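Here's what a typical entry looks like (PaaX family transcriptional regulator C-terminal domain-containing protein):
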Amino acid sequence: MSSAVADGPDRDSEGSATYLFSRRSARSLLVTVLGELVLPSGQPVWTSTLVHILRGLGIEEKAARQAIARASSSGWIHAERQGREVRWTLSDKMVKIFHTGSARVHSLSDPFSSWNGSWLTLVTTIPHDRRSVRRPFYSGLTWAGFGNPTPGLWLSPHIERAPEVRSLVDELELGEHTYSFVGTVDLIGVRPEDIVSRGWDLDALEKYYARVLDVVASLRPASREETLFTHVQMINEWQQMPRIDPQLPEGLLPDWIGRTVARRIESLRAQWATQVRVRYGEINLGAGTE
């Protein structure tokens, strides 16, 4: 994920918020709209509602409609035509993805003070003729909070994520190339704090979080419409954080700025939730009666 964060809010010609945080694709923003607005509403969403919101987020109409079509092709949403209009419901597959991802995002503010010092460790050697699986394997391990302090070695303090990693290894057929074990690392060799410094680029991550915190602190949307757009962008940024933040325990990473940012976002989300959902409901109701 790009760590570039805008210096401050930009405004389009209609006054809606655009690119407050890192620039995102239509697909990424659509996923956030589906999970943050459509799922809680429990109601189908009209195409025109999705296009309206994505346009307010700086996405051109053509790109918005393409993103919706691709979401349908991917089995994320199902269409129901009513006359000339189409409304969409979330697939069971997408609902499951949202619930799983939501738990990971919400854990960003958890100090993980229950950690007992044990690490889940993987040693994997991917053969040259299987090199095509490297990218999805490394991406999956990063999402699970693993660091890579030296080639072939991956570690995470989140031993509870072993089933997730097992599924990843099985899916990519890497079982015969992978060794795993759980244990402490402080008796022989590299110290835990050195594993942390080698396994993750926390300096760059800290700078990213500092910029995000500055943007979050400056958010003062002036209307319900602008609050909706700002809310979606903020939640979209929040949803990307588990991909780069290993969520290390307080014992390894005390006073981590990432937890501060997550708590601030959670607070604003709760503060804005009612007006955002009311405005979304108005937009969707209006689209359905046009």
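Residues 1-17 have pLDDT under 50 and may be disordered.

More examples are in the samples folder.
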